[in-house]
């Protein structure tokens, strides 16, 4: 089995340096490589309308946008409007503030996600949370990430970052199997031998073993990401090949 072509995307944080120089040209080149979708992370001075037009011209679908945690309280209605303008189906909070990395802090985040998730649902969208490694810390006997799994699945899903799950000492398969349907989007980010980031397929993570259970997890989008590529275009091309040629 292989990943459906329409499910292979690029999370645009990877391309931030070249996006800052030429946003529409970057999207066109990604489409030429073979990517079909993108996740937006940073506007670089462009409006949601303009970014949507760039994506449309390139033939790319925008599936999600990352929105800072604080915006849930400050301008959530605006964030949802922008996501709809982009044509996204998910709005993603990429991290919880460091001062909330406690059981009480994650419980407060769960409450905030519940309310934000209701507004997203009313707007025809779905709220997702993107994890980092520290979200899997055990505090007072509780895995912090697991607190968020207690939020109503209709109101909160997850953009599971596979690198950070493993970095946090957990196995993505356990989450796919234990919480079916909660993970519609993935960040597919590989791990080098030294624990740093690597292009997809060139590192140590066993994506085939993970993706064998992707259907259980409800995965619809596999979004490539590399946090610090030495050459963004070389990384984008290698990762596309690594992901599109994967068998599982």
Automatic annotation (TrEMBL):
Start and end residues of each Xylose isomerase-like TIM barrel domain: 29-229
Top-level taxon in the UniProt lineage? Bacteria
Q: Name one Pfam family in it.
A: AP_endonuc_2
Q: Which UniProt keywords apply?
A: Isomerase
Record keywords: Acetylation included? Answer: no
Q: Which GO terms describe its molecular function?
A: isomerase activity
InterPro entries membership: IolE/XylAMocC-like (IPR050312), Xyl_isomerase-like_sf (IPR036237), Xyl_isomerase-like_TIM-brl (IPR013022)
What is the official name of this protein in its record?
A: Sugar phosphate isomerase/epimerase
Q: What organism does the record attribute this protein to? A: Kribbella turkmenica
